Amino acid sequence: MATPEQMEAAVLAYVAAFAAGDPEQAVAIFAEDAVVEDPVGTPPKVGHAAIREFYQASMATGAKLVLDGPIRLAEGHAAFAFHVPLHFDGKDMEIHVIDTFAFNADGKVREMRAFFGPGNMIAK
């Protein structure tokens, strides 16, 4: 099972990847056969190639993640709240998100799910 230190390091590396605009840094935390569902309800991205393509597009927008509170860890899972400040369609906005990571025994993310919807997109 992934250790708390591995799980927290993965979340922090994920946030740092967005800060650096580095999709490869994000992909590095995922298992080869990982599944990303972002947001929940959209078609899953499976495997490094699909995940890389997704993060290349996401990071091309200039999105940065700002953690809102502590990372929650429990039995091979991490959950963390954050917001994404952005300028979209001529307006300043924030998207408020909760992501969950499920880890494999090697400490790699095997599943990522992002929870947010239209009600979590706030005009500033």
Automatic annotation (TrEMBL):
Family matches, as SUPFAM superfamilies: NTF2-like
Domain annotation SnoaL-like: ranges: 11-112
InterPro entries with a match to the protein in the record: NTF2-like_dom_sf, SnoaL-like
Source organism, top-level taxon: Bacteria
Name the record gives this protein: Steroid Delta-isomerase
